Amino acid sequence: MTTRDIVFTAVGVVTALSALLSVTTKHVVHAALWLLVSLGSLAGAYLVLGQELVGLVQLLVYVGAIVVLVLFALMLTRAPIGPHAEIDTPWWQRAAGAVLGGATTVLLASLLLPLFAGVSADLDTPTTTTPQVAQAIFGTWVWPFELLSVLLLVALIGAFAVSRLVLHRDPAEARPTVPATAAAGDRG
């Protein structure tokens, strides 16, 4: 094993563990932060593979935009951030989800691994260069990226508008009501 293999394996383990923690934690902010670690270490995996542009786009788009958008949306909503008994799933649903996830992984591995059985990976001579990847991203796929950015902007504006609607309620509704006997007792 070379140093590149060891670093790639270490980064892959960090990516997989942080992704697992992201979907298993019951604290929403912690899940977003584990997602940040997972996406950041995935960018590190791209760097180890010699795809600097893809790693930089990963950092800019996903770590810099998506996770910030998720954290901003969490700050705007008044949803419970920590574990909450009313929205917690029972153990059997989590077990069924784990079984279904494992079955899907086995199915995909049984379908995809035979396709790559005879392929050898030569990492020293990349088949695609950075200009080719840049041309594919900013040439062919530029409109889906732009549409996604517009969608995220609309979602952000919508979240802000919804949060402002809740904040500007009638001030009379926000005041606590005082029973008539307590109010009369304070005057006398």
Automatic annotation (TrEMBL):
Catalytic activity: a quinone + NADH + 5 H(+)(in) = a quinol + NAD(+) + 4 H(+)(out)
Keywords, alphabetical: Cell membrane, Membrane, NAD, Quinone, Transmembrane, Transmembrane helix
Pfam family, one: Oxidored_q3
EC number: 7.1.1.-
Transmembrane regions listed in the UniProt entry: 6-24, 31-49, 55-76, 97-121, 141-167
Database matches in InterPro entries: NADH_UbQ/plastoQ_OxRdtase_su6, Nuo/plastoQ_OxRdtase_6_NuoJ
Principal location listed in the UniProt entry: membrane
Location within or outside the cell: Cell membrane
Superkingdom per UniProt: Bacteria
Leading EC class: translocase
Membrane topology value: Multi-pass membrane protein
Annotated family: Belongs to the complex I subunit 6 family.
Role description: NDH-1 shuttles electrons from NADH, via FMN and iron-sulfur (Fe-S) centers, to quinones in the respiratory chain. Couples the redox reaction to proton translocation (for every two electrons transferred, four hydrogen ions are translocated across the cytoplasmic membrane), and thus conserves the redox energy in a proton gradient.
Protein name: NADH-quinone oxidoreductase subunit J
Source organism of this protein record: Terrabacter carboxydivorans
Classification lineage: Bacteria, Bacillati, Actinomycetota, Actinomycetes, Micrococcales
